[in-house]
Amino acid sequence: MKSLLKLFILFLLSSCATQHSMAQTDGSKKAQEAYKQADEDLVFGRYEAALVGFEKAISIDSKYVNAHLQLANLYQNLYLEYDKAIQHYESVLKMDPSLVKSYYEGAKCCLYIQEWGKAKAFALKYQEKRVVSPYSDWTSQVLLESIELAQQAIANPVEYDPQNLGPAINSDQAEYFPSITADNEFLYFTVNNENDRYPNEDIYTAQFVDGKWQDREPVSAVNRKNAQEGAHSITQDGRYLFFASDRMEDNQGRFDIYIAKKVGDEWRVPVNMGNTINSRHWESQPVISADAKQLFLVRKSNDGIGGSDIYVSKLDETGRFGKLENLGKTINTPGDEQRPYLHPDGKTLYFASNGHPGLGKTDVYKSTLQKDGTWTKPVNLGYPINTSEVEFGLYVAADGKSAYISSDREGGYGNMDIYSFDLPVSARPEVVLSVKGVVKDIVSGQFLKANIKILDLKSGEVYKTLGSDDLNGSFLVTLPAGKNYAYQANLDGYLPFSETFSLKNSSEGAVVELEALMTKIEKGQEFVLKNIFFDSGEAILKEESLAELNVLVDYLESNEELFLEIGGHTDSDGTEEQNLALSKQRAKAVYFYLLAEGVKAGHLSYKGYGEGQALVPNDNEENKKKNRRTAFKVM
Fold first, then answer.
1. Which of 597, 589, 528 is nearest to 556 (CA)?
2. CA 399, CA 431: separation in Å to the nearest integer?
3. pLDDT tens across 594-608, in order?
């Protein structure tokens, strides 16, 4: 990952400067001149010349400690030749044992090339000689735990077979930060054009058609000239894009979070998310949860736990994102945490970190949100998903099995490429399924923009509220598998639509398709709420009926001109007299519930129809279920 590490060279130089030796020899004038020129080459990015210059300095004066330090730094962090870096750290420590950080860096280099005994020896020396502080306590502990973890992980590798997404996606430029819609149809990712004079990150997209990815295209409405549009997150339905950008007219800090909306096939102008989310600090790498109620991001500030921390903002009752909350010390460390991703199961968090015990410079981890709101201790995803280098940008698809990651492994198209692979079972989240729907006018077939509510049928909880697309009436959501759900569509001028669906027996990776056919409000028109339930032969509303009835209450409050007759209907089991009485009692139960919730009595009436208005013959259980219903007629 040399291409990305070059971006951090100036930081590494400052790190090296903290180890400047006070005990070194001044060296000859020629050695000092060679060092000075090499230092200048390094500052201006002339790395090969710098390497040659520092080597020249120590060829003139083999005890030139700072030249050894700079060479160790270059070999470790840019050229990734760890054996050479170790040699220079050993030379430094022979000449100046007070440079304790060289024990630490030497241990990491040994860790990267799996020299466990030597790594532990370096780490124990660092633990012994360091200046005791909370920070050095942490670095020492994490280093020793990393050596132990790496030994175990490499001895017990997880299954990992990454597949390059091919030339339609990848190129000789750097591609990273993949994200994909819930139906696996649209991939969004960042491209860093390193041929430009300044870093130039843009967001691209590609569509999966007939079993292959089509050629990538820039998201032109989002990308701006002379600005970076980098880390991003696409909502499950592909209609909202959250991304980080700099050099925009309304930036509040170094990087801010923006949101863009897609209407039909066109993206609208991005909007800054405001000072609740953005600040004078650095905010980037946004990730929106599947239910769109939580926005995770990374912030660099002086009041965090480490260099960069993961925060979350939660949607409040007014529909606005609230104040950012730090995820706390279980997730964030004195190091850097980045690229969070909350899976659509709503509780499995994946993120990258250099502050937890790991195999390399940055590893990928998994943590689970518990019922009490705390996070479990992060688990390293293991080897060879994590290696000695930088791993980040992991994205796990809604099916919980397919995953995407960025890597500059051999055999790619050059630089960072995006790969897909099957996530090991131990690293998978809970199974969720994609539900895809469309809203239409039942008569004309016109696509409608309606408000959609998805409810957990057992608990009555509203799992998600969303809207269908302005132009094509579509909606897409991911839901936990193994449950029964209801969905409702509401739109001014139309009767409410209600239906149930089950994800209990749907196969993993399946996409469930729904269609809401809505009827315009006209006298005599009737609609049925499919989620009103009674026990057999009873007229007491079951608990799972209340969520749908509460939505109807809200609908009637917004449509005060409506007058409805509540009609009870039964199947043919029992006598006609019994069914007529039962249907009236059930209609009456609904009537009184609506009154208790504030609906005006003058706008409601009720009537029992018994078995007399069957929709289909009562000749099987499925048909009988259709005939048992509560209908609402416009009067």
1. 597
2. 6
3. 999 999 998 999 999
